[in-house]
């Protein structure tokens, strides 16, 4: 945040403000230093979360100096063995089917939200009941994979550091940490290193996922460490190519009837400025990226202001008061003493979503992460982009547009490919476009959190995608793993 109040930024920011045709949102921008904090707090409250600390920085610096790189505990929770580690904290669940199944890593977005949000509310082996006991999730992704949920970037969830310099500001920092984590994990569990490996996640992880995929691929090519058998990466309702995705907001909102044509046209007057700011930001800008964050978010803010109390993760729903979802049981459960003792987290706080990490990543927000993807596709690494159709914030339209606009050797065929129904149990659960290693899936009846809204379809999606049978017709029910387990 050093460059934040520096004169060049401020003057660029003011210049952009003066140029901004969106007078109605200028008021929101009057106090720029507080705005990111406001967005971060709002995000956290909307999930009904109240982390005790803004970030996990341990007080004493010497505390974990002599511990090995990776500290794990195996325990029953309630009947399944799990491994956890400190510093980069993670849950690991062995596949309920076979340890030979692929290893999958899940990354929650935010930026700054714990991956345990997905573990307990989306695709983990259990959900938290209201009495805080754990209930099996029939459609947990551990039914077809050995799955890791990592708290990252450092400072979120139970991951912590004693050094503030470990707070990350960009995808280089994030992907290097994750790469180091994977190396340590596979060193400790060499029998899993030969399994296929997939990177998955959601929302802001639309930045993390392509960055990590590129980092792993680069490490493999350079024979840097243990070979990680990367086969594919999947982005769910992600933010990957901001220029295209911010351009789709008003179109999506109008298509869905939450703003009028007049409002659409007025709001999009900010678009040329937003697009040029994003262009300046590119893949590695700094101050221009900050300016782009402020300017472009006027578009989103204006839409939300028009739309009233609509839940922008699922426009079919309303936010009650400040609350759009109630994930408070996550904090209650992970702060129970017996749970904390079992996890061995000592006095480390559980930071469900970190406002500090959110703000530290602001310069990363508008960077284009699409640019590294074509090289991965050319090397045969699969990409699945999927999106629940009722999400506004990372809507399917913006995602579909960048996936179609992406230049790679199969682009023509991909663009020409016809949409086919993605069927689960004989009914259409989504619409699929695919060619070669690239697939795009629009998921019906789902918002931002697809595995929460469509658990069965999302498990089928993961399974068929990993088995490269996403575009094949649905298996007969008798052959389906889901109904046989
Ligand atoms: C807690 O709730 C779950 C799910 O509703 C239920 O199956 C379980 O029996 C309850 N446990 C206790 C101790 O009440
Ligand atoms: C379950 O495990 C077996 C044995 O490794 C494997 O052949 C099969 O493909 C797995 N099923 C699924 C759906 O992943």
UniProtKB/TrEMBL annotation:
Function of the molecule: Probable carboxypeptidase.
Protein name from the UniProt record: Carboxypeptidase
GO terms under biological process: proteolysis
GO cellular component, one term: vacuole
Stored PANTHER family: SERINE CARBOXYPEPTIDASE-LIKE 49 (PTHR11802:SF446), SERINE PROTEASE FAMILY S10 SERINE CARBOXYPEPTIDASE (PTHR11802)
Record bears the keyword Protease: yes
Subcellular localization(s) per the UniProt record: Secreted
InterPro entries attached to this UniProt entry: AB_hydrolase_fold, Peptidase_S10, Ser_caboxypep_his_AS, Ser_caboxypep_ser_AS
A molecular-function term among this protein's GO annotations: serine-type carboxypeptidase activity
Family indicated by similarity: Belongs to the peptidase S10 family.
Gene3D superfamilies associated with the record: alpha/beta hydrolase (3.40.50.1820)
A UniProt-annotated Pfam family: Peptidase_S10
EC nos: 3.4.16.-
Signal sequence, start to end: 1-27
């Amino acid at each position: 945040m050093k460059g934040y109040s520096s004169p060049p930024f401020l003057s660029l920011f003011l210049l952009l403000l003066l140029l901004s045709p969106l007078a109605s949102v200028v008021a929101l921008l009057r106090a720029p230093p507080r705005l990111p904090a406001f967005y971060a707090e709002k995000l956290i409250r909307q999930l009904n979360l109240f982390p005790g600390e803004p970030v996990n920085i341990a007080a004493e610096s010497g505390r974990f100096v002599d511990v090995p790189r990776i500290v794990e505990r195996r325990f029953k929770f309630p009947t399944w063995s799990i491994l956890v580690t400190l510093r980069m904290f993670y849950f690991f669940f062995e596949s309920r089917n076979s340890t030979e199944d692929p290893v999958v890593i899940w990354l929650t977005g935010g930026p700054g939200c714990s991956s345990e949000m997905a573990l307990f509310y989306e695709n983990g082996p259990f959900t938290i009941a209201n009495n805080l006991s754990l209930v099996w999730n029939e459609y947990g992704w551990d039914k077809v994979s050995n799955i890791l949920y990592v708290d990252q970037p450092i400072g979120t969830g139970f991951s912590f550091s004693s050094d503030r310099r470990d707070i990350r500001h960009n995808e280089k920092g994030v992907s290097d940490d994750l790469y180091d984590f994977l190396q340590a994990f596979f060193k400790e569990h060499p029998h899993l290193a030969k399994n296929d490996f997939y990177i998955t996640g959601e929302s802001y992880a639309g930045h993390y996922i392509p960055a990590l995929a590129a980092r792993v691929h680069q490490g493999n090519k350079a024979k840097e460490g243990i070979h990680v058998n990367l086969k594919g990466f999947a982005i769910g309702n992600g933010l990957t190519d901001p220029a295209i995705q911010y351009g789709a907001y008003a179109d999506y909102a109008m298509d869905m009837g939450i703003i009028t044509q007049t409002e659409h046209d007025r709001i999009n007057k900010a678009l040329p400025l937003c697009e040029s700011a994003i262009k300046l930001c590119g893949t590695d800008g700094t101050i221009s990226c900050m300016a782009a964050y402020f300017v472009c978010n006027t578009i989103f803010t204006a839409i939300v202001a028009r739309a009233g109390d609509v839940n922008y993760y699922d426009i079919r729903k309303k936010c009650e008061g400040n609350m759009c979802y109630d994930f408070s049981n996550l904090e209650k459960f992970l702060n129970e003493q017996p749970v904390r003792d079992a996890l061995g987290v000592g006095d480390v706080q559980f930071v469900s979503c970190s406002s500090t990490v959110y703000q530290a990543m602001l310069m990363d927000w508008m960077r284009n992460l699409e640019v590294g993807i074509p090289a991965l596709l050319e090397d045969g690494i699969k990409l699945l982009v999927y999106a629940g159709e009722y999400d506004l914030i990372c809507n399917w339209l913006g995602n579909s547009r960048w996936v179609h606009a992406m230049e790679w050797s199969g682009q023509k065929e991909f663009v020409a490919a016809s949409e086919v129904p993605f069927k689960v149990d004989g009914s259409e659960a989504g619409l699929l476009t695919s060619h070669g290693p690239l697939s795009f899936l629009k998921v019906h009846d789902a918002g931002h959190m697809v595995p929460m809204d469509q658990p069965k379809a999302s498990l089928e999606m993961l399974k068929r995608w990993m088995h490269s049978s996403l575009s094949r017709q649905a298996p007969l029910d008798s052959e389906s793993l889901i109904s046989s387990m």
